[in-house]
Design brief:
By secondary structure, this protein is mostly helical. The protein has one domain. The strands form four sheets. The protein has a two-stranded antiparallel sheet. Strands 3-6 form a two-stranded antiparallel sheet. A hairpin with a 3-residue loop joins strand 7 and strand 8. The two termini are about 30 Å apart. The relative contact order is 0.16.
C-alpha cells in the first residue's frame, strides 16, 4: 500500500514564522496522510484475516468462514483501489510541497519508495488473481494465491516506514558541499529507527483491522443478529487483535526507551519536560504554556523509571535543545497529548480484551452482554484513534526537522506559487473517493444482508463461474 509518511502533520510551525507556504503544505500533508493511514491496516491485516477465514473454511468445511473470506476479499479490493488513489496523490505531494527534500535527498529517501513500488505492484497482481480466482481455481491453489497479497502488504508498509525511520535517524549517505554524493542503500533502508518503527506499525495494523472487523459484527449482534456467521466474524477479528495487543504494548515500552536514547528531543516532548533533570514525573494530560507544564497530573519519578529503570535517570528536557531549532509550546503540547491518547486508548482496548478473555473462559462462547458488545462495537473507532495519535507523535515529534539535524521543514517547503488551491483540490479528490468507498461498501453490505448468503457473481470477473454451492472444500 502506497503510504508516504511526511514531516508535516499538524499546522504548527515548530520555530516561529517560516515561509508563507509552510502552513498550507503542512495542512495538506496532515489531511492526506491522516486519510491514507486509515487504509493501511486493511491492506496489511484484513487480507490476513481473509486468509485465516478461508483456511478455516477449507480445513474444517466451515461454510460461514468461507462466506466471510469471500466477502472480506471484496472489501479488501475496494479499499485497495481507494488506497491506490490516495497514495498516488501523496506521491505527487512529495515533489510539489517539499522540493528541497526530494531534490536534495531523493537519492537516499527515494530508495525505500522504489522497494515499496515493487511490493505495490505484486500486491495489485495477486489481488486480481485472488479475487478473480473465486470458483475458478481449485480451493487450495486459490488460498495460496492470497498469501502474496498479505506478504506484499507487509513488505510495502515496512518499506515506507523505512523512509520515515530514515527521516528520524538519517544515515547511509555521504555529503559534500551540501549535496548527497554517495548512498549506501542497505544503511538507508535498515536505519536506526527501522526495526522498532516497522514492528510497531505492523502490529498496529493487525490491531486496527482486527478490532474494526470485530466492531462491525458486534454492532450486528447488538441488532439481534447472533447467528453463527456473526459470531465467527467477530471472533476472527477480535481474537487476532486481542492476541497482538499485549505484544504491541510491550513493543511500545521498548520503543519509548529507544526514543529516549536516540531521539531525546522527541522524548522531552512526550514527557512534557521543559527542563532537564532526574526524578522526572510522568505527566498525564496537561499542556506546555510559557515554557512550563501546566494542568497535568504528575506521577512522581515514573518517567525516569520508564526511561532507565531508576528514579535517578536523567532525562534531557527542551532546554537542552538549541533555541533556533526548539519546537514551540503548541507543537510540544500536541505531541504530549497525542502520546497520552495513544497509550490511554491502547490500555482501554487491553481492558476490553481481558474482559473478553475472562467471559469466554467462563462460558466458551462469544459474550452477549450488551455492555460488552457496545464496547466491542466502538473498539474499531478507538483503535483508529490510537493509530492516528501514534502518527501525530511520530510526525510532529520530529519538528522542526524534515530530516533530523539535516533539513529543516521550513527549508524543505516550496517557496513559489500558491499551495492553497492545490490543498483544496486534494480535499475534493479525497472527499469524492471517500464518499464513493462508503457508498460501495454500504451497498455491498445491504446486498449481503438481503441475500443472506453469498451470491454467485465474482467481482470484476465475467459471469458463468461455477455456482458457489458446487465449490470444492465447502467454498460457498
Amino acid at each position: 500500500m502506497l503510504f508516504p509518511s511526511r514531516a508535516a502533520a499538524l499546522p504548527f510551525a515548530a520555530v516561529g514564522g517560516g515561509p508563507s507556504q509552510l502552513l498550507p503544505a503542512r495542512e495538506q500533508m496532515a489531511f492526506t496522510l491522516g486519510f491514507h493511514i486509515v487504509l493501511v491496516p486493511f491492506g496489511v491485516a484484513l487480507t490476513t484475516l481473509m486468509l485465516i477465514a478461508e483456511y478455516r473454511g477449507l480445513r474444517h468445511g466451515d461454510r460461514d468462514a468461507m462466506v466471510l473470506a469471500r466477502r472480506w476479499s471484496k472489501v479488501s479490493a475496494v479499499l485497495f483501489a481507494v488506497g491506490a488513489v490516495s497514495g498516488t496523490v501523496l506521491t505527487f505531494e512529495l515533489g510539489i510541497l517539499w522540493p528541497r527534500l526530494m531534490g536534495g535527498y531523493g537519492a537516499a529517501f527515494g530508495f525505500p519508495f522504489a522497494i515499496e513500488g515493487i511490493f505495490f505492484f505484486l500486491e495489485a497482481i495477486f489481488v486480481g488473481i485472488y479475487i478473480y480466482g473465486w470458483d475458478r481455481l481449485r480451493p487450495w491453489p486459490h488460498f495460496w494465491s492470497g498469501v502474496p497479497v498479505a506478504l506484499s502488504g507487509v513488505g510495502g508498509t515496512a518499506s515506507v516506514v523505512a523512509a520515515n525511520g530514515w527521516m528520524n535517524q538519517p544515515g547511509g549517505i555521504t555529503m559534500s558541499g551540501g549535496r548527497v554524493t554517495a548512498v549506501r542503500p542497505a544503511q538507508v533502508f535498515f536505519n536506526g529507527a527501522f526495526w522498532y518503527e516497522a514492528t510497531h506499525m505492523l502490529l498496529a495494523a493487525y490491531i486496527v483491522a482486527g478490532f474494526c472487523v470485530a466492531g462491525v459484527y458486534a454492532a450486528g449482534m447488538l441488532k439481534r443478529r447472533t447467528d453463527r456467521h456473526h459470531r465467527v466474524g467477530f471472533l476472527t477479528g477480535f481474537v487476532v487483535a486481542a492476541v497482538v495487543l499485549p505484544v504491541q504494548i510491550y513493543v511500545g515500552d521498548v520503543i519509548a526507551r529507544e526514543v529516549y536514547d536516540r531521539e531525546p528531543a522527541k522524548f522531552a516532548a512526550l514527557e512534557l519536560l521543559p527542563t532537564s533533570g532526574t526524578h522526572v514525573p510522568e505527566t498525564l494530560l496537561g499542556v506546555l504554556t510559557g515554557g512550563r507544564a501546566r494542568y497535568g497530573l504528575q506521577v512522581p519519578d515514573v518517567a525516569s523509571l520508564l526511561a532507565g529503570f531508576s528514579p535517578s535517570t536523567r532525562i534531557s528536557g527542551l532546554d537542552a535543545i538549541a533555541p533556533a531549532v526548539r519546537p514551540d509550546d503548541a507543537a510540544v503540547s500536541v505531541v504530549h497529548l497525542a502520546f497520552d491518547v495513544m497509550v490511554g486508548s491502547s490500555f482501554a482496548l487491553l481492558a476490553l480484551a481481558v474482559w473478553f478473555g475472562w467471559a469466554y473462559w467462563r462460558r466458551r462462547e462469544v459474550p452477549v452482554n450488551r455492555w460488552f458488545l457496545r464496547c466491542a462495537a466502538a473498539s474499531g473507532a478507538l483503535a483508529l484513534v490510537a493509530l492516528e495519535s501514534g502518527w501525530v507523535v511520530t510526525e510532529v515529534g520530529r519538528q522542526p526537522w524534515t530530516v533530523v539535524h539535516v533539513l529543516l521543514t521550513r527549508d524543505a517547503v516550496a517557496t513559489q506559487g500558491n499551495l492553497w488551491p492545490f490543498f483544496a483540490a486534494a480535499l475534493g479528490i479525497y472527499a469524492l473517493v471517500g464518499a464513493a468507498a462508503v457508498f460501495v461498501l454500504r451497498g455491498m453490505a445491504r446486498r449481503w444482508r438481503a441475500a443472506g448468503d453469498e451470491a454467485v457473481q465474482v467481482p470484476y470477473g465475467p459471469s458463468g463461474g461455477r455456482p458457489a454451492a458446487a465449490s470444492e472444500g465447502g467454498a460457498t
